[in-house]
Amino acid sequence: MKQDQVMPRSRDAVPEGSVPGRRQILKGAGVGAAGMAALALSSPTLARSRAAASQGTMPAQEPVVWRCQTAWSLEDDFHAYITTLADVLGMLTEGRLQLEILPAGKVVPTDALAEAVSGGRLDACHRTLTLDSLRQPSIGLWGSGPAFGMDALTLLSWHRYGGGEALLQEIYAASGLKVHSLLYGALPTPAFGWFKRPIARVEDLNGMRFHAGGLAAQIYQELGATVFQLPIDEIIPALRRGEIEAAEFSTLSGDRALGLPEVLKVCMLQSHHQVAEQTELLINAERWAALPPAWQAMVEQATQAVTATLIGQQINQGATHYIEMREVQGVRFYKTPESVLRAQLQAWDRVTVRNSNGDPVFARVLDSMRRYAQRCVGWYTDATADRRMAYNHYFMQRSPKGTKE
After folding, report:
1. Who's near 373: CB < 8 A, 6+ residues apart?
2. What is the residue-averaged pLDDT of the chain?
3. pTM
């Protein structure tokens, strides 16, 4: 079987300029970005903010400061997301509501963030929901699996308009967690994984020692891999020691920041294991309830505005890092074979049946997602032309010199 290697693009496809810094992103968030920004700034959230503010001015008092620990190191792109949100929130509240951002592990381990927020040891935390899926598999549905064809932005739409938000809050309450959740951002689809050699068929995964996180780990187990779920800071050392042979982690930018291109040079693009992930600001319920309605609306507005700018940043940054990894770091990118992608879907079906049988809440969330996807993804795929056709027409009429047909 001929492996389908992703071809290098011509030089005119390389984005110009550097990856935008946080202040540039903040500037964009302040004025709004096309598409999602228009939604954010014209939403009922803003109307509630204005209505609440019209009832009286913000109380003159010392700034409210929330201690917020993230799930990532200071160098990670995801850490920059919460600092961007903190800047926008400070701007909207004129500095009267501030986030004190703490890196991963500063107060509690990453897997204890939700309990620390609920108990008041932290005022808030910043993470992805897939980090909590070992304890609560139903929470892992916000990000794991093929999501019935939804991408991250469509799943965010389901969360806001299709019942997902109420279901998530119900899950937290049933778990005894006294928290308020705000989802924001829409992350690109991560790679299938990083390997020593290309994956040509499902059987290539048999017995492979593979790191995967969340519900996605169950997909790789179904495909035959021996799965390890390691703490983030142990993935690269485990690869160097040979304790694991391959890994999936995050977006391409996140994989690069972690250091995967330094130890593995084959990356399989396209996957169904985690196509619709967002980031979450999880807030202590008492801290949230103590905010005036206008402040609550501003926090919600800040997450929506930052969502728009982060989408734009991810597109630019992802393309830049993709080209750098290929042309500078020597990474070879391949498309995951269709047979493997189909096997992922079949594996996910088995995972969801097994979890639904033992967890009625899991089944309810899955059914809600299915109904929303059937309506919205069906409309989108019917109405939208395949972008690959237009891209190939303009950029791939002649293969760049030195590439394989």
Report:
1. 147, 148, 149, 150, 154, 158
2. 85
3. 0.82
